Amino acid sequence: MSIQSSPLAAGQAAPDFSLQDAKGETVSLSDFSGQKVIVYFYPKAATPGCTTEACDFRDNLNSLQAAGYSVLGISPDAPEELAAFANDESLNFPLLSDPGNEVATAYGSYGEKTIGGKTIVGTLRSTAVINEDGSIQQIEYSVDATGHVARLRDSLGI
Predict the structure, then answer these.
(1) What is the predicted pLDDT for the residue at 85?
(2) Catalytic annotation, pick one of 29, 50, 61, 95
(3) What percent of the chain has pLDDT over 90?
(4) What secondary structure letter does DSSP report for 32?
(5) Coiled coil where (predicted)?
(6) What angle do CA 153, 122, 146 make, to 5 degrees?
């Protein structure tokens, strides 16, 4: 039996959420009402692919913000792990803890994946771009961490 959450599509309402950030403070998608937000899901802080992707967002944050986008990273890591990851990599955007994978599941970003020939269940690397009205502008699944932000910027015309 396959375990896979249902993917979302452009035009659908982005599921709201409230999660703890690296400081233990609650951050909700509704906090960004009227703003454009990039929400990206990653499997595990401080692993090679996740570090590559997070640093890519860090290095491109000014251009994304100049175009009106905020960035939120979501993983199942505990707030303490997120704080260490953010500190170690000088990350300049919020990282949110989704320990039960409820938000990842709501976004279609949780399910089976194969790593090194072994099938496991976990957070799937994916990115949702959310419009000011709370609808999904675009959503991408099975994201390759390397070059992801450049491809995202290109698709958004940034």
Answers:
(1) 97
(2) 50
(3) 87
(4) G
(5) none
(6) 30
